[in-house]
Design a protein that fits this description.
The protein is an all-alpha fold. It has helices at 3-22, 24-68, 81-99.
């Protein structure tokens, strides 16, 4: 048996009890609220998954740029070693903000 089937069966049993005790109007209101709750949940999960995917893609791109020695603001001058260390810490800070 699939989880979907078990859930539907359980829901039908519960709704039958609600319908017998409270009537059709309240049962319909309960169903409407359940549908809205499930829709909201699905939307939130999809949004979170899309955000995770975007963050992972951005992190991957940033790591490739770091490994290639690229920075966001490329200058024609060579930077001193102190500036390179500062640039790396800025990249690390950005990666940390994405993981939060």
């Amino acid at each position: 048996m699939s989880a979907d089937y078990i859930l539907r069966e359980k829901l039908e049993t519960l709704l039958k009890g609600v319908n017998e005790n409270y009537g059709k109007i309240l049962t319909n209101e309960l169903l409407s609220r359940l549908e809205n709750t499930i829709t909201d949940f699905n939307d939130e999960v999809l949004s979170l998954l899309n955000e995770l995917k975007e963050n992972a893609t951005l992190k991957e791109k940033m790591m490739k740029d770091i490994k290639a020695g690229k920075t966001e603001e490329q200058t024609s001058e060579k930077s001193s070693p102190v500036e390179e260390v500062r640039d790396m810490s800025e990249w690390e800070k950005r990666l940390e903000t994405l993981s939060n």
